[in-house]
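Hi! If you just cloned this repository, the fastest way to understand the data is to look at a raw example. We've pasted two of them here, unedited. The first protein comes first, obviously.
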Amino acid sequence: MERPSGPSSAPSSGPSSRPAPGPAAPLLIACALGIERFALRPGRAGAAGPVTVLRTGMGPKNAERSVARALGETRNRDAAVIAAGFCAGLVPGMNPGDLIVADETRDPDGSTPCLGTGLLVDALARAVPGHTVHTGPLTGSDHVVRGQERAELRATGAVAVDMESAATLRSALSAGSRPVAAVRVVVDAPEHELVRIGTVRGGISAFRVLRAVLPAFHEWHRSLLLPRR
């Protein structure tokens, strides 16, 4: 990213000689569930440009269709895209409320590299202090993953699984070059599966963390030089 130039002794034709900066590129945050959208609702200070929180509905097909439709709108054409919401952790020792920052998303259709992973990790550490942030591949599934299947996905190197992130980012890039990322909050993990007692407590913890991450998304967005078409 270029830094603003300093004072110059060259003659100037006045204030109008420097072109005005273009409008700030928008940010699209895609999540599947209404409760996730509620946690991520916009309107807080710090955004670099217009922010849309899109509820896609559950599953990869819904995510793919919803994101493609949203990015087809003029106001979102150049939007950076973050896939966000809850996920299942795959690594033993994870707890509800831990954060996942994907360095790539995977599904049977391939993998998508994420941009600004380290920046997001640092920003989340400031936004949600005291919560563990894990990085690594985030894999996709078309159903809720439990038991042995969770272990099998872990054996591929993935750190977490959800149903929408991979489809969201693939759809976003199909609509044009743009920064993409995926950030998820662990709601269940190998020792804390959804079917066990304590699920409600874990869900509340995950919701509180998700509600606090928006400033980190804004920081990521501000720090990226969005492509110009």
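Ok, and the second one:
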Amino acid sequence: MPVLDARRHFLHTVDAPPLTLADAVYLPLLSLGSANDPAPLSEDVEEEAGEAEWHLLGFMLVDERYARYYVRWTETGEVWGLDFCMRDEAGKVDSRGGTADMIFPALASSHDLERFRRPASDIRCRAVYDLTAWC
């Protein structure tokens, strides 16, 4: 019985697993929602001490390349739309939305998020921020 050395193939698969479009959509959801409980259904709920800075509310596919994730910023109660890439310009699945939990809070708390505001009309949120530059 022939024996083949499959280590190189195995290590390549482990180091660079193939990503799907579902992965690209799911990574920002996991990243933005992992440290936060679901948003309360009632807006009359008292804010608790030590509560997370934001609550993930949901997402919407904008087109074939982008998805918009809706978050409620705890400090103001405003709902914002955050656009992230699912695919790069060549159509390859993009996994960098998984860093949303690092990018978004840093920009929001430093009030630097306004640089990324885009003139988009979305009835689900007060403002839309184009974070595709991070893709």
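That's it. A detail worth noticing about the second one: The helical segments are 7-15, 21-33, 100-109.
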